């Protein structure tokens, strides 16, 4: 069993910022993530709203953040956290992992695990998942060069990834249950492209297959009436229909709301002393890189203050 002052679960922008602030507050910091540092930002082709970094590739921005954490001396490990147990006196928290029986203890924990893609759970989705259906245009878009592609969704991710895909595919069709809801300038630009067609207020019903088992297309109809069914033939599909928080490992702590998002106060503190939330896994109004970094900085500062309080009371050394 190893011990740290601060354990950060999640290495996206919130977690990495927390690590930077934690180390600078003279805390011994461990940052954990089951995947590569960066979270969902890694899959973003172009970030254009992070101050001082106009039109930067998402993976590049994340690598800069991660290198910053490492230059300051924050520890990092690839681990899948399965449970956080709070000691009877409330001071130490024990973190358990899926990979092995090793545990880590710390008086403060920041939950910065972000979200994962939501799925439709309709006929054909399971069949084509991971082959013709993807959730990452940067990862899989190149194989659809000069082919026809469908994006499902109309939010920021759908519009941003759609703009990227439109530059390499033959034709891009966007099917969304409302309309394009990203910032107006981005939506207007995407709509203006000659090889883009948008179907708003539609409900996707199934993914259709050819006789040989390959993807034929996407079947959808009017959202309100279920009428006007049609199938748009395509070679691949990208789903961007929202996200769910990756917080199952803390569900028994009583710090999440009904949808699984972490409930915090303005200081990122949860109802459990010493446990904080930061980033997209928090219950919040705006989920952006800049708000995640703000959360991470606040949470780490609060964790530092909490540890100072414990030391002053003789409860932690």
From TrEMBL:
Database matches in SUPFAM superfamilies: FAD/NAD(P)-binding domain
UniProt GO molecular function: oxidoreductase activity, acting on a sulfur group of donors, NAD(P) as acceptor
Residue ranges occupied by any FAD/NAD(P)-binding domain in the UniProt entry: 4-296
Claim: Flavoprotein is one of the keywords in the record: yes
Source domain of life: Bacteria
A Pfam family it matches: Pyr_redox_2
Protein name: FAD-dependent oxidoreductase
Assembly notes: Homodimer.
Alphabetically ordered keywords of this record: Disulfide bond, FAD, Flavoprotein, Oxidoreductase, Redox-active center
Cofactors demanded by this protein: FAD
